[in-house]
């Protein structure tokens, strides 16, 4: 057996809500104040993951984080019992409180940047937990993400889990959402493409923030021991950011030799493609599938999330499968594009659609929900088996979601002090289901 690509999906957390916290993310702004359906959200995610597992792909999960994040509020001066901290934070500083209650760790593509072992100098699989410092609600994710990755990939002789980069604007890092790896096959050395929105040493003035910096990309490539000749660090286009592509994976996805991207994804497309060709020289010939602005306007690319799809080698099929969100099927230009694409003889032979609407309304499509980890057979054996999806885990998580998750959650209901214990009971039960130990969350260690 050769190396495989596993997908680790972020489980939608019990406090999933629509607070409009993410500047530059049009879906988050548009749905601010709407009533969320946490139970439907987690079940949608489970169904998507099950589809891949049933097809024979390797699928795992990353656990949600503790939300509301009471330790964060205590550090900011709120006191009393945990329920009192939550109640008083919501009353005195409601915007701050909402920032401590987002279920944003569900977007596992932002958990970390992952470099598989064939690409690294020491032959270990390297992961850097993302600092997500450009938004308040996500800037609290990094330490718990690093803890989760260490619990899932525990063997230091095979896995190197790096802490987030320093919490200073120069190092803005949003993880694998701005990283693409191309290769001849998963286990062979690949080309790692890191995409930044801005150079932190230059000023940035635009409609929306650019979250990933060039300096963060360079630091990650150094930490992971990537070969500079096989590493491409390129600039995302300002036009894409200003149209609402807050991460590169909203306008670009890759798998194997194939890069599927929008004409406006990169600041300098020609230079980007030349750099990829040069880095791949001697390894493989990259295949570029570029979608022109006059076929799919960037605005449609963003509302449909066509590029925020999982591009997969599907067992039993010759050509790749694009697992796109339902919204891609419901947007005329992207549906027509997909029909033309699969009718042609390009590398993508089928488009399938997943319903992840609860996540989509916060700007997270199928690709946002997963972290890809290429694993050799020996590495796969070293992964904590409790988080890997099989029929037992699927049944247990479905029951768990039905027991612990609310059917609906409005922003007013988010203030409910009972939510603190409710959400902790869910997470505590989850650590038992997934074998994560009884000291995984801060509330368990207190
Ligand atoms: O960081 N949304 C997330 C969506 C992340 C999508 N991930 C990728 N593209 N890989 C974000 O903008 C919205 C939360 C809120 O508004 O409550 C949010 O954080």
UniProtKB/TrEMBL annotation:
GO terms for biological process: L-arginine catabolic process to L-glutamate; L-arginine catabolic process to succinate. Pfam families: AstB. GO terms for molecular function: N-succinylarginine dihydrolase activity. It is an enzyme of class 3 (hydrolase). It comes from the Bacteria. It catalyses: N(2)-succinyl-L-arginine + 2 H2O + 2 H(+) = N(2)-succinyl-L-ornithine + 2 NH4(+) + CO2. Keywords: Arginine metabolism, Hydrolase. InterPro entries: AstB_sf, SuccinylArg_d-Hdrlase_AstB. Gene3D superfamilies: Succinylarginine dihydrolase. The keyword Transferase does not apply. Substrate binds at residues 19-28, 110, 137-138, 211, 249, 362. Its EC number is 3.5.3.23. Pathway: Amino-acid degradation; L-arginine degradation via AST pathway; L-glutamate and succinate from L-arginine: step 2/5. The active site is at residues 174, 247, 368. PANTHER family: N-SUCCINYLARGININE DIHYDROLASE. Catalyzes the hydrolysis of N(2)-succinylarginine into N(2)-succinylornithine, ammonia and CO(2). Homodimer. Belongs to the succinylarginine dihydrolase family. This is N-succinylarginine dihydrolase. The lineage of its organism: Bacteria, Pseudomonadati, Pseudomonadota, Alphaproteobacteria, Maricaulales.
């Amino acid at each position: 057996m050769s190396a495989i690509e596993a997908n680790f999906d972020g489980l939608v957390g019990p406090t999933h809500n629509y607070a409009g916290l993410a500047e530059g993310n049009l879906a988050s702004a548009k749905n601010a104040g709407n009533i969320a359906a946490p139970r439907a959200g987690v079940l949608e995610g489970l169904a998507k993951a099950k589809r891949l597992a049933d097809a024979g792909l390797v699928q795992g999960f990353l656990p949600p984080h503790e939300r509301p994040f009471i330790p964060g509020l205590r550090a900011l001066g709120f006191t009393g019992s945990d329920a009192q901290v939550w109640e008083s934070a919501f009353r005195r500083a409601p915007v701050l409180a909402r920032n401590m209650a987002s279920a944003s760790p569900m977007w596992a593509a932002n958990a970390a940047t992952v470099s598989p072992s064939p690409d690294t100098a020491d032959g270990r699989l390297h992961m850097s937990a993302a600092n997500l410092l450009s938004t308040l609600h996500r800037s609290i994710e990094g330490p718990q993400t690093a803890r989760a990755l260490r619990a899932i990939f525990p063997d230091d002789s095979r896995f190197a889990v790096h802490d987030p980069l320093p919490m200073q604007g120069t190092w803005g890092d949003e993880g694998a959402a701005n990283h693409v790896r191309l290769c001849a096959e998963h286990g062979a050395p690949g080309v790692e493409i890191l995409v930044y929105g801005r150079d932190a040493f230059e000023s940035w003035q635009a409609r929306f923030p650019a979250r990933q910096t060039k300096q963060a990309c360079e630091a990650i490539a150094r930490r992971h021991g990537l070969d500079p000749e096989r590493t491409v660090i390129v600039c995302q286009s300002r036009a894409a950011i200003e149209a609402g592509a807050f991460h590169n994976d909203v306008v670009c996805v890759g798998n194997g030799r194939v890069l599927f991207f929008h004409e406006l994804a990169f600041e300098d497309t020609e230079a980007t493609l030349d750099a990829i060709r040069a880095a791949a020289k001697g390894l493989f010939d990259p295949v570029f599938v570029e979608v022109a602005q006059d076929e799919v306007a960037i605005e449609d690319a963003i509302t449909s999330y066509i590029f925020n799809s999982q591009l997969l080698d599907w067992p039993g099929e010759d050509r790749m499968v694009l697992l796109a969100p339902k919204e891609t099927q419901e947007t005329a230009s992207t549906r027509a594009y997909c029909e033309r694409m699969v009718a042609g003889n390009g590398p993508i032979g089928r488009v399938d659609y997943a319903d992840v609407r609860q996540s989509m309304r916060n700007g997270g499509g199928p690709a946002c929900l997963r972290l890809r980890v290429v694993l050799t057979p020996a590495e796969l054996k070293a992964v904590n088996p409790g988080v890997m999806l099989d029929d037992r885990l699927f049944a247990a998580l479905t029951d768990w979601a039905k027991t612990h998750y609310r059917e609906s959650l409005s922003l007013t209901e988010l203030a409910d002090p009972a939510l603190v214990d409710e959400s902790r009971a869910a997470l505590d039960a989850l650590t038992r289901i997934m074998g994560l130990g009884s000291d995984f969350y801060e509330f368990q260690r207190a």
